[in-house]
Amino acid sequence: MRAILLYLHRYLGLAMALFLALAGLTGSILAFHHELDEWLNPDLYHTGSSGPALPPDQLVEKVETAWPRMQVWYMEFPDEADHAALLALVPRTNPETGKPWPEKPVVRYLDQVTGAQVGERYWGECCFSPRNFVPFMLEFHYNLTLPGNWGLWLMGLVAIAWVLDCFVALVLTFPRGRPFWQKWQRAWKIKRGHSTRVNLDIHRAGGLWLWLLLLPVAVSSVAMNLPEQVFKPVVSLVSPVAPSVYAARSELPADTLGVTGYGYGEAYRLAMDHARELELVAPITELYYSFEYNFYGAGFGDHASNEGNAWIFFHGTDGRLLGTEIPGQGTLGERFFQLQAPIHGGRILGFAGRVLIAVLGVAIFVLSITGVVIWWRKRQARQLRRA
């Protein structure tokens, strides 16, 4: 059995090493991505304006009038009047060709008081300029910037292998023979000696000391990349987890989805009405519309809070409530799913948790590299013996 586990750990580790090393480094950077982006691009965040903010529909009207081939699908509006609102736009369909206009999706930043544009950027574009750095890191960490769903599936499968390997690696640290605890203590120590010995100890002891942090991050990685395909079905074996509104409506025939019945102004008012019925007191900070499945989503409160923000979803034709994702509500399985994003970013423990995730990202990189070094040195030793 131990030989099988060693084989699994060796080749799962080699298959994952590059991806985990990259995910670790980018995750370490992204632990404070908002603060980093604000420092790199202060003009996209601070407008200096004061006074009442324009309602969402007026902001949408201003930007869609200025760029008539584009349409807003997502908005962020912070509480502070001197902070810019974010509007993400995608091309409209050309009525003559039935295809989207040849325009790139763009994110525009508007002064909430005057409606004037203060900046723009093309989200996810390569690579390291101040404008592109944080969005590119976010996309790369999430899906390696691969087209379609290839990156999501690839990183999701890596995450599944990582969860499995967490348990395999733990078992491999268990000593053979007795006394168990006395012998196992050695696996937790980094001993002085030859670099080969030190490298092995860093890999083994580092994995042990960090195991209770690595496993939750690995599990949350599955939830981030393959929520409907893997995470929710597995959790539902213990406690039911409802599919997202997006997933549920994707199963409906296209002719039953309806058509857009109102704009962002009415959507904002409907969101506030639903919020009062649900006793949500936090302000709306995010609002989006799914053109594909004809529904609106509204986020309430700070999405960077310890538990994440609350979401409600309502029909794009008649405004009826379709679903909610409210932290602390729902089945045990749904509450467990809601915790995955705060766990993954460390926000569940506040500022200290984010620092912990930043350090853990570097540790994941080190564990990946030391694992490859162990394999390489053992491979060289085997080749020398054969010679």
UniProtKB/TrEMBL annotation:
Cited InterPro entries: PepSY-ass_TM
Record keywords, A-Z: Membrane, Transmembrane, Transmembrane helix
Ranges annotated as spanning the membrane: 12-32, 150-174, 207-226, 355-376
Domain of life: Bacteria
PANTHER family according to UniProt: BLR4505 PROTEIN, IRON-REGULATED INNER MEMBRANE PROTEIN-RELATED
Protein name: Iron-regulated membrane protein
The organism's taxonomic lineage, starting at the top: Bacteria, Pseudomonadati, Pseudomonadota, Gammaproteobacteria, Pseudomonadales
